[in-house]
Amino acid sequence: MTRPHRRRSSRTTPPRLDEERSLWADGVDIVAGVDEVGKGSWAGPLTVAVAVLPKDRRVYGVRDSKVLTERERERLFDRVASWCEAWGVGHASPRECDDLGMSDAQRLAAARAFRDLGLEPDGILVDGHWDFVGSPKVRTIVGGDASSLTIATASILAKVTRDRLMRAAASDYPYFDFARDKGYPGPRHRAALAAFGPTPIHRTSWAFMDDLVWSGIPRTEGGPQQNLFARGIA
Q1: How much is the pLDDT for 220?
Q2: DSSP letter at 4?
Q3: Shortest CA distance to 98 belongs to which of 47, 43, 48, 161?
Q4: Is 198 domain-assigned?
């Protein structure tokens, strides 16, 4: 079931527990929120996080990760992680995104996130209109990262985890400015691709590669950063 959009993400309007309380009132005890990040990036993994919140404690300042600064997300991360009853993160590697396509890669990352969660939720709230978890327990909510506190929490866990991976990759690929753009499109990213070609953590099947001309430097297969992402999705 898809719930309609309720409100846009805002720094001043906090997400609430309306959906969660509705489920709890219906006897759904363990409610998980799910969000993804990295779907539109040119490089790096696709990351899905799932979070289960306590019913009786709150953390101040939780918002959809997109309306928070990087510093604010980092400051919240440890507090949010320790606040959760349980949480998990799963990744699909750049090569898996290429080989499987984004829909199946998103399903794979979600399956890994639930495996990392370590418990079986009774109800699942997913941001957006598509059930990429693939469960009869799912309730999709358009704009859920703005309206649901559990989904907003998952959005912070997913975003910070992936951002840290991309900052680690920046030292291996300094010309791509991954510490700043986190693998997303931008003029500097495009210029670096034109000059040096794709790295091993680029999604080379994407359409942006089709007409890209670079300087002839061969693409390097393997390397330490592939091992970094392999550890993240093991």
Answers
A1: 42
A2: P
A3: 43
A4: no
